[in-house]
Amino acid sequence: MRGLVSMVLAALLIGACGGDAEPTTTSSAAAATTSQPPATTTTVATTTTTQAPATTTTQPVETTTTTTSTTTTTTVPPSVCPLPAALPDGTLTFAGGSGDFDGDGNEDALLTYQASPDMWRVRIVFADGGGADAAIVEGMDFSPPQPIGGHDVDGDGADEAFLTVGSGASTAEIGLFDIATCVASRITTGGVPAIFPVGASVGAVSGLSCPEAGSIHRNFAQFVSEDNYEGGFEPYTLAGAVLTPGFGDGAGFTADEAFALAVLDCGSLALP
Ligand SMILES: [Ca+2]
Ligand SMILES: [Ca+2]
Fold first, then answer.
1. Residue bearing the bigger pLDDT, 23 or 252
2. Most CB within 10 Å of its CB: which of 18, 133, 208, 271?
3. Residue 157 Cα, ligand 1 centroid: separation in angstroms?
4. Please, what's the b/e burial string for 120-150 (b: 16 or more CB within 10 A of its CB; e: otherwise)?
5. Ranges assigned E (strand) in 100-241
6. For residue 25, what pLDDT is reported?
7. Distance from the CA of 98 to the center of ligand 1, in angstroms?
8. Which residues sit with Cβ closer than 5 angstroms to ligand 2, an ion?
């Protein structure tokens, strides 16, 4: 009996072990097959999307290069005033004045010349070629007009032209020209050409000063008694080619103070 029971137990044990071994082999084979396909699909998708944006960024750069080349073409034509006719040989000419009359930063030449026995003219020759030319109304031949130079009276960046337009016994008379768009115009006040005498005689003293940008002062003093002069200044404001007088002030001067007024005091300008 005991021998039969142990034989049955042994047979049962062998049967149990053989049944357990088979399921293990099937589950490992199935897991390996499912993990492979997803890995292949994701790699293809990523490579296709990164290439498309790269192509779109290259095109706008090419369009900007075309616009820059068009801007360079506009700087080529310069605006130059026509150069007045050359002066005939032997023309009586006074040269030596200069200033920046068109405000381009370059010194231009200022000269006066006798156009006919009773007519003098002023000429500006710009540094970049071209010029402006105008008649001097005084036109006297015994005291020829002479160039002084340029000073920016109204502070617009371009000099006004100063020249002598005549002379008294002991004074020089100064006239001014405004130069705008290739044209020189005599600066006027009260509808007539402005004239500023500079000098001193025994009884009277007069001068011209440019104390600040935008104004010009006529200074004057008259003899009253020994070492006693009375005078003052009259300010003018320049707009275009017109000087408008403002409110001046009076003062008493000693003889030394009065004679110190008898100068041209506008920047670096000096009487010829
Ligand atoms: Ca100039
Ligand atoms: Ca000016």
1. 252
2. 208
3. 10
4. bbbbbbbeeebbbbbebebbeeeebbbbbbb
5. 108-116, 119-125, 131-136, 146-151, 160-167, 171-180, 183-186, 188-189, 192-193, 196-200, 204-209, 215-225, 228-239
6. 37
7. 9
8. 152, 154, 156, 158
Distance, CA of 241 to CA of 185 (rounded, Å): 7
Confidence grade of residue 213 (pLDDT, cut at 50, 70, 90): confident
pLDDT tens, residue by residue, 77-115: 455 899 899 999 999 999 999 999 999 999 999 999 999
pLDDT of residue 141: 57
State in Å: Cα 123 to ligand 1 middle.
Answer: 14
What percentage of the chain has pLDDT greater than the value 70?
69
Tell me which residue of 255, 167, 137, 159 sits closest to 210, measured CA to CA. Answer: 159
With residue 243 as reference, give the H or E element that holds it.
strand 242-245
Which amino acid, 93? Answer: T
Q: Which ligand is nearest to the CA of 127?
A: 1
| pLDDT recorded at residue 26 | 37
Structure tokens at 111: 């000269």
